[in-house]
């Protein structure tokens, strides 16, 4: 099975040490462009662009990188509760059209109550997933060319439609990650690829089996991916030294503050990440070559594969044997680590290097007359044939 290997754009900052200003790197557009172009050149399938108040806006970042890349795909965040599904569908179709079909979307329900409250979202955990499910049903139908009337508990739209369709049909692929029962139910019903964070293989196997079973009960199949950091060096000794160096500036006060903040999350996935290290620096190798040091201070993906190229490739293949075909990787600093992964790791893996998509000619859609959209006959015929 060929593997889709994605990289990461650090729009929240980058550097050589976690939780330290020492050797911190300013992340401006020029730097993001360097990372994106390196990933594009090396053959990464795409880049995950993070979301949240600590990050630059993922949609604007993706849009700005379209003209300076050739084949790289952009995995950007959909935020139910923060934006309407109708607006999100319009934005998604636009990004897909302008990028010539290189847009991917990551449904992010959110798990930080403080950040959600600042965005005006005051739903509890289960209510957020109810709202996310309603959002996604409307979003998918609109992008698939339907006119949508929908009245749910959290979302209501009437006569919603999308005038400019996406390039990818029936809609650009939808990614999603979540560990709770509610999240798994949503994934089984609606998403194309389910992402897990980098837990030990036996825990990942259990989680994937649950989602696979729920999807099968609905007559669906779901692809699987995993989100991991990676620290690969020419020798195992060098790799573990690099892991230790990454958290070498982390003092006890900063660690305590980080854990206090992370403990306020109501995310099941975040709780599972925290249980891997329990806030302690000791015994951070929680599974062979799987290191939990990043999760001491960072939310979300908190584990890294550490080792020489042969060892890291072996661990990736172990995850692939569980049915995972997509690996979303990252490493500090992200520019240098992208090159290390491409040069040291890619030759040992069957990497699905994307082709440069052929430019697709977009047809005229119609005109606005008064306040009504009147489609051109050719555009209407195309929609009728979809």
From TrEMBL:
Keyword check for Transcription: no
A single GO molecular function term of this UniProt record: alkanesulfonate monooxygenase activity
InterPro entries in the record: Alkanesulphonate_mOase_FMN-dep (IPR019911), Luciferase-like_dom (IPR011251), Luciferase-like_sf (IPR036661), SsuD_RutA_monooxygenase (IPR050172)
Catalytic activity entry: an alkanesulfonate + FMNH2 + O2 = an aldehyde + FMN + sulfite + H2O + 2 H(+)
EC number: 1.14.14.5
Swiss-Prot/TrEMBL keywords: Flavoprotein, FMN, Monooxygenase, Oxidoreductase
Gene Ontology biological process terms, A to Z: alkanesulfonate catabolic process
Residues covered by the Luciferase-like domain: 4-325
Pfam families from the UniProt entry: Bac_luciferase (PF00296)
Note: FMNH(2) which is absolutely required for this enzymatic reaction, is provided by SsuE.
Subunit structure: Homotetramer.
Name of the protein described by the UniProt record: Alkanesulfonate monooxygenase
Species for this entry: Mangrovibacter phragmitis
Protein's gene: ssuD
């Amino acid at each position: 099975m060929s593997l889709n290997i994605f990289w990461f754009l650090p729009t929240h900052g980058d550097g050589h040490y976690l939780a330290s200003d020492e050797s911190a790197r300013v992340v401006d557009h020029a730097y993001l462009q360097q990372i994106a172009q390196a990933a594009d050149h090396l053959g990464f399938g795409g880049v995950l662009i993070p979301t949240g108040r600590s990050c630059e806006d993922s949609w604007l970042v993706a849009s700005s990188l379209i003209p300076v890349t050739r084949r790289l795909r952009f995995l950007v965040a959909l935020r139910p509760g923060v934006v309407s599904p109708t607006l999100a569908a319009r934005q998604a179709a636009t990004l897909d059209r302008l990028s010539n079909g290189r847009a991917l979307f990551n449904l992010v329900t959110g798990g930080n109550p403080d950040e959600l409250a600042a965005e005006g979202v005051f739903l509890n955990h289960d209510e957020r997933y109810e709202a996310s499910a309603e959002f996604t049903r409307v979003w998918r139908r609109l992008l698939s060319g339907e006119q949508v009337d929908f009245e749910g508990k959290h979302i209501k739209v009437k006569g919603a439609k999308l005038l400019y369709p996406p390039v990818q049909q029936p809609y650009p692929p939808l990614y999603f990650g979540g560990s709770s029962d509610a999240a798994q139910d949503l994934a089984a019903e609606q998403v194309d690829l389910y992402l897990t964070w980098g837990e030990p293989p036996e825990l990942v196997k259990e989680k994937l089996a649950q989602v696979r079973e729920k999807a099968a009960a609905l007559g669906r199949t779901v692809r699987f991916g995993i989100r991991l950091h990676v620290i690969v060096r020419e020798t195992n000794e060098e790799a573990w030294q690099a892991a230790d160096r990454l958290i070498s500036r982390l003092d006890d006060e900063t660690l305590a503050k980080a854990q206090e903040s992370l403990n306020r999350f109501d995310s099941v996935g975040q709780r599972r990440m925290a249980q891997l290290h329990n806030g302690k620096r000791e015994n951070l190798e929680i599974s062979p070559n799987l290191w939990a040091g990043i999760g001491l201070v960072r939310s979300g993906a908190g584990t890294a594969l550490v080792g020489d190229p042969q060892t890291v490739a072996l661990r990736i293949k172990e995850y692939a044997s569980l049915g995972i075909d997509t690996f979303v990787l990252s490493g500090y600093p992200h520019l240098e680590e992208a090159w290390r992964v491409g040069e040291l790791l890619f030759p040992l893996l069957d990497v699905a290097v994307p082709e440069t998509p052929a430019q697709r000619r977009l047809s005229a859609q119609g005109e606005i007359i008064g306040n009504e959209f009147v489609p051109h006959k050719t555009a209407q015929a195309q929609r009728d044939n979809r």
